[in-house]
Amino acid sequence: MSGKTVLILGGGIGGQVAANVLRKSLHRDHRVILVDRRREFVFSPSLLWVMVGQRKLDQISRPLEILSKKGIEVLQAEVTRIDPGKKTVVAGERTLSYDYLIISLGADLAPESVPELKEEAHIFYEPSGAQGLLEAARSFSGGRVILLVAATPFKCPAAPYEAAMLLDDYFKKKGLQKKCEIAVYTPELLPMPVAGPAVGNAVREMIEGRGVAFHPGMKIASINAPSKELLFEGGQRARYDLLVAVPPHRVPRVVKEAGLSGETGWIPVDAQTLKTQYDGVYAIGDNTTILLPVGKPLPKAGVFAHYQAEVVAKNIAAQIEGGRPSHLFNGRGYCFLEMGGGRAGFASGEFFAIPEPRMTLRRPAFYWHWGKVLFERWWLRHWF
Question: What's the predicted TM-score (pTM) here?
Fold first, then answer.
C-alpha cells in the first residue's frame, strides 16, 4: 500500500487532537502534516485566567515543534490557498498535496468591523489582548467597566459572562467594590441561548448575584472614543471607563476564497461525520456550522472541536487501514463556568437532542473550579 498524506490546517484544540490521534493510529508509512502560522499552541480556555493574573502565558503555551518528536510533521506557515478540486493547499512558499484534508482554522476575530472597537477595547480572546487587559486592570482605580458582545456567533458562549465575574472578583480583591460598576451588553436575549432558557436564566442569576448588570438585546452600532460612549442600534448609549469586548467573528478568508463557506458564512458539514461537500475533505471546530434540530447552530466551543477531531481522525485512519469508518459525533458537550473566588459552575448536555438541547447547570462549587484546573493540566500533558 502506498503511503497516504493527511493534511491538517490549524494547530488549535481540534488540530492538536486530530494530529495526535492520527499519528497513533497510522503506520509510519503514512504522513500526518500539521500546518499553523504560529510557533506555539496556547490553551485558549485559560486566557480567562491570564486576564486576571491567575496564569502566565508560558504556563499555558507549548511549542508546536514538540509534536515532531511524535512523527507529526509541523509546518509553520500561513495557509493562503485551498483547492479541494485539485487536492492541494498552498502554505507559505510550499504547495502541499493531500489524500485527506482536515480544516480546523478556527474563527478569525474582526474587531475592525465595528468603528473604534479595535482601538478602544481589550479583547481577551487572544494572548496579547488578555495580557493587555491584565495591565489595564492593575492600573484601574474605579469607574464603569463594560463587557461588550459585539455580534454572534462567537467562540465559547460562556466566556463573556465568566470574564465579567472574574473581573468583578479581581476588582473586589483590590478593594474597589464601591468604586467599580460592571455591566454586560449583548445582542443575546439570554446568556448561552442555545442551551435553553433554564440555563440562560441560571447564568443571568449568577452574574446579577455578583452585582453585574445584564443588558440583553443590545446591538452595537459604533463607538464614540472621545466621549467613551457605546452607540447601539435603536439610539441607546452607554458610557464606559474600561471596555472589554468579544469582537465579531468571521470564517478565515482562505476558507471563503476556496468556496467552502456556505450561506451562513461558515463551512457546512455533516453533523455526525464532519464531511464537507468535497471528497476527503473534513472540517471541524469553530470554522464550521451545524444546524441543530431546534433551528439554531451548534455553539462554537473547544469541547466540540476536540470530540469532532477524534471522530474524524479515527474514521480517516480506518479508511486508510482498510477498515470501516464507524465513529459519529453525538453533539454532547460540557463547559466550566468560572465565577471567581475559586468557584465555578459546570454545564453539560446533549445538543442533538430532539426537540431541543437537554442541558443541566450544576450549582457553583470549589470542586468545579479545581476540575477545570486538573483538566487544563491533563490536556497539556496528554497531547504534548
Answer: 0.96
